[in-house]
Design brief:
Residues 305-403 form the D-serine dehydratase-like domain. By secondary structure, this protein is an alpha/beta fold. It folds into two domains: 13-38 and 302-417, Lyase, Ornithine Decarboxylase, Chain A, domain 1 (Beta Barrel), CATH 2.40.37; 39-277, Alpha-Beta Barrel (TIM Barrel). It has 13 helices and 18 strands. The model has no long low-confidence stretch (mean pLDDT 94).
Length: 421
């Protein structure tokens, strides 16, 4: 199994398959390694499912976070409506894995991809933010003899943000174009508030709130204009992992999954990072840590399920150690790794590491500044908290699953494989 850097040297398929039975100690695995904590993942799945049920929303988690068939299935088993993806290739993976509902949170304007999906449109929903996108989809699917209409959500953007029609007038023009297409079905509205802010300051929260209210106004305007197909269900969707409480507050009142108000309306969050959470960006901004609105029960939080482990390979000067994990192993786009604990050479358990900070990453090394009197030596192993799951998983074809990363003696109980092409 040399293709998996997460397993001990010399391990073969038989040893990997036997991990649930043998449960070897994590300290016997090579570094660098990133682990996934089984107990924390289970906690996060249950916590998010309970929160969504109380808030009156459904969940279509963004699968690009992990690109793991096993974790996607666990999210579905916990009640997820479907899986969100970002690219045609990711959509093809999801469809190939038999995901019952796939939401492509992007415009699908590549003719080759449209033709490839033409016979499997019933499980796919896509976005559009321009009449041109609608034109391409209509022409391509008509030419491909598509078997049924493709569900399309009108994406609303905001000035200076990412994709999405700018303003209600432009979005309504897209909705009218979709409604007029013989091979498309106007299926709702979509947006992404996470591109508008990057913190939980009052100004950021106010901007997110205003955008979500405009998204709801777009849905109401489409309904008032009679553009939705009569009696057809619609979707309202927004919500990354930072502001999903505001999404629920604004959109959940429109939810009517049984069609009690005359039309079936589903409100979908697309939060993806909750499944592993982190010790950096999402720890600082998650609604469950900063309050989470009236749906948050006292003391309920997500737990960090991903950790990096690296060996001190050099202590070249006072206050500086180098470890054997770098950009090829650990995320760095939303903050550098966070030293949390150190397992001394020959010891069984890690102890807290106070005052240490990562200052830089090379390809295969991290620079860790430590207090000059810190008990850190060559051969010790440092456990790192990570920041941003989305750029953790894509560095590993398989992650070592431990029973509990914070246990005195974590044991490896399996691998979670990823698929990033």
């Amino acid at each position: 199994m040399e293709a998996y850097k997460a397993v001990p040297l010399g391990f073969g398929p038989a040893e990997v398959a036997d991990l649930p039975r043998t449960r070897p100690l994590l300290r016997d695995f090579p570094t660098p390694v990133v682990t996934l904590s089984k107990s924390a993942v289970a906690h996060n799945l249950a916590t998010m499912a309970d929160w969504c049920a109380e808030a009156g929303v459904a969940l279509a988690p963004h699968g690009k976070t992990t690109m793991s068939r096993e974790l996607w299935q666990r999210q579905l088993d916990a009640g997820a409506w479907g899986i969100t993806v970002a690219t045609p290739w990711q959509a093809s993976v999801a469809l190939g894995w038999g995901i019952p509902r796939v939401l492509l949170a992007n415009a699908l304007v590549q003719p080759a991809a449209l033709r490839a999906f033409a016979a499997d449109l019933d499980r796919l929903t896509v976005w559009a933010d321009s009449p041109r996108a609608v034109e391409i989809m209509t022409e391509t699917l008509t030419g491909a003899g598509a078997a049924g209409p493709l569900a399309v959500l009108v994406e609303l953007g905001a000035e200076g943000a990412r994709t999405g029609a700018r303003g209600l007038k432009a979005a309504l023009a897209v909705a009218a174009a979709v409604a007029a297409s013989p091979v498309l079905r106007l299926a709702g509205v979509a947006g992404y508030e996470g591109a508008l802010a990057h913190d939980a300051s009052p100004a950021s929260l106010a901007r997110v709130q205003a955008y979500l209210e405009e998204l709801l106004a777009l849905h109401d305007a489409i309904e008032a204009a009679g553009l939705y197909p009569p009696g057809a269900p619609v979707i309202l969707t927004a919500g990354g992992s930072a502001y999903f409480d505001q999404v629920a507050e604004v959109l959940a009142p429109r939810r009517s999954p049984a069609g009690g108000d005359g039309r079936e309306v589903e409100v979908l969050l697309r939060s993806g990072s909750y499944v592993t959470h982190d010790d950096g960006f999402y720890r600082s901004i998650t609604p469950l840590r900063r309050g989470g609105g009236h749906h948050n029960a006292a003391g309920r939080e997500f737990h960090a399920a991903i950790h990096g482990w690296a060996t001190v390979v050099s202590h070249p000067e006072p206050g500086l150690v180098l470890v054997d994990a770098g950009k090829r192993d650990l995320p760095y786009d939303e903050g550098l790794p966070i030293p949390l604990a150190v397992r001394p050479f020959g010891a069984t358990a890690a102890v807290p590491l106070e005052g240490a900070v990562v200052t830089a990453l090379n390809d295969q090394h991290a620079f860790v500044r430590v207090p000059e009197d810190a008990a850190v030596a060559v051969g010790d192993v440092i456990r790192f908290g990570l920041s941003h799951p989305c750029t953790t998983f894509d560095k590993w074809r398989a992650l070592a699953v431990v029973d509990d990363a914070l246990a005195p003696e974590p044991r490896v109980i399996g691998l979670v494989e990823t698929t990033f092409g």
